[in-house]
Structures
1.
Amino acid sequence: MTKAVFMGLGYIGLPTAAIVASKGIETVGVDINPNVVDTINQGKIHIVEPDLDKLVKEVVDKGMLRAATAPVPADVFFIVVPTPFKGNHEPDITYVEAATRLILPLLREGNLFIIESTCPIGTTEKIEHLIYNEQPELKGKIYIAYCPERVLPGNVLYELEHNDRIIGGVNKDSAEKAVAFYSKFVMGTLHKTNARTAEMCKLTENSSRDVQIAFANELSLICAKAEINVWELIELANKHPRVNILQPGCGVGGHCIAVDPYFLTAAFPVESQLIAKSREINNYKPLWCAEKIKNAMLEYELKHAKKPVVALLGLAFKPNIDDLRESPAKQIVQNVMQSEPENLLVVEPNISTHPIFKLTDYNKAYKQANIAAFLVAHNEFKTLQWDDDKIILDFCGIFKR
Ligand code: SAJ
């Protein structure tokens, strides 16, 4: 029976390991955090992702998925560890290297070694050299490929099986071997290429979205000054058969789109002008929103000779999730709180408690507020009615007015 090892049991490693295990492949998930390992071995999960708890419980109960703190010999090894930044947005591949070194003594002829972590261009070739430097007898006898994930948080289980995948081999045989393995659990089309193109493809996808969101955000700044409804404008422009503008918001959050473009700007600072500028625009947007809120508060106080009650609606990094990682909405709330900590009602319908923010129910907060600032387009907020008696700052298109 085929055996797979996953190095890293995070937002991508765990769901992928669980799906692989559910296809009858004996799977061992490795994580340096013993709490994560214990949690998973109890059939529970440490991250939030719809339906993942059920799948993990099922495959752990069946004995197909087991978590451990060290890898074991296997047929297929997956590297799914984080690639954070060091210093000023310089990608750090230390975890990828460290995970590879743990696997090195276990590698044997015929093994397939796959990197899924988002990586700077050339990382797979670097890791290939590392492997063959340490184990020269394996040269030409194992298969190495880079296969980026492209799933959307909140819809991971569906997209893992249904999305097309890019499979970048260090040579043709490696790409073929990786395609053969992914076809056991992916229904989408598997597109073969080389490792460098696959690395660049991942960075391109997220940079493309970042640039497009920056365009929408830039329009929102222009429209605010020009007194034009940006939502109506975009809707109308998108009636053109070849125009498809995204939605402006409070900025770009999460661990992917706001991060991956820096992998390109760090390595190609001269060439990646547009990508770098888009990052600047998207980073500026939450500051702009916070200033708008603070100005509205000041104007209210001057006009009414009392401080306003302000509802700050939404903390998550995007609609209808409970994930606050790198959230522009959270950044705005913190910014406003620093200058005016009183009379603020913080709302996040997708979480029940927060260690820093005292949360208020969205209906109650909206009712009490003199100023309502919509930071995330959660579905709940769309049930609220426009109220002429309030100052409404709609940064994410709840009312589209
Ligand atoms: N956003 C806007 N306006 C839009 C769309 C999004 O402001 O019109 C904002 C969101 O509010 C959020 C941010 O952008 O703050 C990112 O959200 P997202 O839903 O676009 O993407 P992520 O970060 O959840 O997931 C992305 C996806 N990449 C692409 O769509 C190109 C996903 O497929 C990747 O797998 C994931 O990054 C990743 O792991 O790299």
Note: The chain is about 40% helix and 15% strand.
2.
Amino acid sequence: MTDLTADAPVAEQNGSGAGNPAAPGGGRTVASAVPSSLVARLAGGITAAGEPALVETVAPLTGERLASLPQSTPADVEVAYELARRAQRSWAAQPVRRRAAVLLRFHDLLLRRQDEVLDLIQAETGKARLHAFEEVLAVALAARHYGRAAHSYLRDRRRGGALPVLTHVVEARRPKGVVGHISPWNYPLELSIGDALPAFVAGNAVVNKPDTQTALTALWARELLVEAGLPADLWQIVVGDGPVIGPAVVEHADYVSFTGSTRTGRDVAQRAAARLVGASLELGGKNAMLVLADADLDRAAEGAVRACFSSAGQLCISIERLLVHRSVADEFVARFAERTRALRLGGGLAYGADMGSLVSVRQLDATTRHVEEAVKAGATVVAGGRPRPDLGPFFHEPTILDGVTPEMAVCAEETFGPVVAVYRFDTEDEAVAAANATSYGLNSSVWTKDLRRGRAVAARLRTGTVNVNEAFAAAYGSVGAPMGGMGESGLGRRHGAEGILRFTEAQTIATQRLLPLAPSLGLDDRQFAAVFTGGLRVLKALRFK
Ligand code: NAD
């Protein structure tokens, strides 16, 4: 396999005299980091019977063959549900604290063994190691949070009864059963296991369909969770084409958790609705960052780099629209562009690159189409703008566009690549209206030195998360608070109470004592109605809730 470790600046390599520099590589190849013996071991974790058809994946960094994986059929999905359902019964009977202990052990194992999975994430997605590490960070935060807090989220709660003292009421949380969990390729560790952890600790089993391109990362996470104490059958992984086995995953689920595009999410939601099972949908975005006139421009420019180019922009909460106050726009754009041009692109399996590759030719085509169409229609390229085949087949430069107008696709459609457009505004109202002028509503970011003003602007934005003076990590990393989308960005939330309670059914157990809620003690119907009418007035006067 090719060693993508060229140390020389790109300008020297391709003779173009321009473009982002290449990061030093570190000398390790994908083939040595992900040997066929590891692939074979991990592939053994896929639920697929008989002699399954094989599907090949490609390492985005080099375009060479990465793995050959067995594909599950809809019948295999059914088997996966049977195995998961059987395992779930005894798992649900265990005390929450024992289930939570598995998450806490997993937390420690993950931190200790992170290099193994960083290699896998980089091999499967082509992202920079720093961005792969963000996944380790996110999963560790979720494992600790739900490991420590599940007990309090799930415990029985006393509620006020129909009749004070006489009606004793407990609200309990029961697991849904088996969760169908469909995840995409862009954050393969976080989006396969991160969302599964609260499902497990709430007493569920999970049948997970990761994207085929990133199945090895999910399979590795499953192995590690089993090592931490999860019963092996509780997490089934099926691999195959979304339109072929995805519907089967929804067909047998007691609840569906889906992360992916808005288009597929709609289909999944309709199938779940037809079966009357619940679904949470984490979908796309066209996220805006607002730079107010009083923002610290250096911090904002640094933040914009993280906001727009983490994982080469293949991040649902990535910023693709930069709204800047006209009075500081030229200065801000100059500082942002300078930092963007200096980003080191690289495909080495080591820290050092600021941005990696896109995952596939599909993502590269979508990115180049948006840039080329916009430029043809009159937009200007402030930084980047070109694919970089000299670095690897799917590399594209981090790109800033100016002069983007509404008829250009890049203006409203999610690119899901390293491309951002700059727009100028004069008033705060104008900025808020522009930020909200999208059918999506996932994430946004506001930059100002006046924190109170930042939070006031945030409250006017129609997105599930808003970050003040940060790109996305402040809200996403705060796993005790909900994260998800408004509008076409989704339904439901991960993280916090909502992120775990979605995997449960509420059950109310009401015990009536001494007197029934009906005429008794010799009262006829009319007297019963009179006594209760008086009683209701007293309860309100005594401020009962
Ligand atoms: P996608 O919708 O094409 O695929 C997502 C998953 O769904 C994959 O596992 C795929 O195989 C499966 N799938 C495809 N067709 C299916 C069907 N008919 N039934 C059931 N499953 C099916 O999305 P993608 O292109 O892989 O991922 C990128 C998208 O995901 C972007 O739009 C991005 O914004 C979004 N995303 C959202 C979040 C979030 O938290 N809101 C996080 C990451 C990615």
Note: The radius of gyration is 26 Å.
3.
Amino acid sequence: MRIPWSEVTPPALRLRRRAFLGAGAAALLARPAFALTGQPSPFSTDETLTPLEDITSYNNFVEFGSSKDAPSRLAGRMTTDPWSVAIDGLVERPGSYGVEDLAPESAVEERIYRLRCVEGWSMVIPWLGVPLGPVLERAGPTSAAKYVAFETLWRPEEMPGAASVYGFPYQEGLRLDEAMNPLAILATGIHDQPLPNQNGAPIRLVVPWKYGFKSIKSVVRITLTDTEPATTWNLLQPQEYGFYANVNPEVDHPRWSQATERRIGEGLFGGRRPTLPFNGYADQVAHLYAGQDLRQDY
Ligand code: MTE
């Protein structure tokens, strides 16, 4: 059964509704076909949400230009329906999947994550999405698979960005154990709504313990490989952007400090706060890097 987006009530909102209406009325609102449990995710932060207006108007999506407002003005041209995502490479069941196959509305959950851009700003974004791990499991990674490569749509006729300057399509990658970490999600919505194009519609990666450039938008291909995939920013500026790109206040960008960040929506001069190791997700992910020198593997 398909449930339209307008019917979907994310957990946080449902909890508020229940508190307001009381148990009896809440039972009437119950949707047994819909899998959201009503429990907030233990991975979600309770920090103040960045307003939707800021999340959708201050963007990095170089395919549509390099200014922060270009994606919100121009990404509407991108056709997102129909859409398919190829899952291929070292998997037992390669295939081409629709967004609904990968992230059925019945499986979508809310995750409120901090997003820390390598440029020194951050937001708190209430995503809707599904964990990436089970999606990969369904494709059946072979024992040789060690990495996951991701690719963004490349359709120059709909993308008036700097095609001549950047190497396209935008590509990113994770180690397989990073991709299987429960924090990694494929997002299809923001703030109770389908993902706006400028935020990477119809489906994008979100890896909150890494700098934002790892969270690749508008994904059309996911490839399991045995070698570390090439990544866009590393290809462009290898001295500045590594493969791992874990948020790390102790390793400065060659051109600026990473010790603090500016929270968007809290005013140009307010909202500056210390940046946390792994963007505050060390408890969930630090073990992935045991024995690694994170200055070397930046
Ligand atoms: N994905 C693609 N395809 N193209 C991009 O330019 N920018 C990255 C990342 N994903 C980018 C991308 C960067 S630098 C950041 S900080 C985040 O998207 C920004 O996501 P947001 O605009 O939804 O906040």
Note: Residues 1-35 have pLDDT under 50 and may be disordered.
